[in-house]
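Mods, move this if it's the wrong board.
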Amino acid sequence: MYKNINFKISDESHIEQEKIFKLLDAFICEDFNFDFNENLVEIQLKTLDFNSFQKYIKTTLLNGVLNEDSKEVVQKILDSISSIGSYGLKGSKRVYVDYDKERKVQNRKEKEAKRQQFFYAKDNNFSKINNDLPVEFENKIICDDSFTVLKKLPDNCIDLVITSPPYNFGLDYASTNDDSHWKNYFDRLFEIFSECIRVLKYGGRAIINVQPLYSDYIPTHHIITNFFIENRMIWKGEIMWEKNNYNAKYTAWGSWKSPSNPYLKYTWEFIEVFSKGDLKKQGSSDNADITAEEFKKWVIGKWSIAPERNMKTYNHPAMFPEELAKRAIKLFSFKNDIILDPFNGAGTTTAVARRLERRYLGIDISEEYCNTAKERIEKQLF
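Not the wrong board. Structure tokens:
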């Protein structure tokens, strides 16, 4: 079975068919072929490395080998394939035939019920009644303790929580006690996360970017995930943020060339995603601003994004980049939704939320960081 595409060419055109076949020979195979049938070009397509194909054709059209009529045909072949909006991905190739076959499961709902989909979150007592965020908290950066501020909010008034909790790794956080015992750290963190769950709307999402403390063998991402699961949140998924930070290979090895105690190295962090009450979030399709290409790329659970390069500029030791916030916000929220970051730091979440036409609430205990966060938003207003 093929995806068939046809287009007409003028009877007066002087098409150099042999040259076109020769130029595109590298791509012609059982998964991609084309032919000329009088004044009709017929394309048969199963899979294609489209990015390579597109790059090759653009180069070909500039090298002067083809006449103008032939160039027009080659361009139409590219345009016809480019216009196909539905396809799957397999490695570097687009899959145009049967890419959605695995999704067509017979009696899906009955089968999901039998295997008890997210059974751990069934017995929650979440209210389905959502509330408005009080106007005094809307589009605000608040310098205070997050737990204290969140206590003032009504239930079910936030659409999306996105944050990266302060790391207890001896980093230079001027206004926090990073020497606290791990148990005290998690107790305090989970007090704030409990409030985040309470203020999330039914169907709202919580996104936590976290890096395990590899040196002390503390799986922070698992500890945090267990907390949200124990509090009846649905684990929606996990994204691996690949930072391509290969400097890790030059750090400690543990037991060099010995299996006694090798030290594992990582170039990524984790992004844990949770839903409250329901996997589906209510919202108008008119307020969905994610493009088809972005959606296809970002639902893959591995994001290759360079680390934040401006941490010295913002005087903050541990920031996630704006690209990470942009993807999370566009993939998991609608325009005009309310975005909360209870550890807002230098304001990446709130700055990106403002740029993407979301409302926001950022909270941080550091006055310096809050001023920075406000400045980043003010720069967008002028």
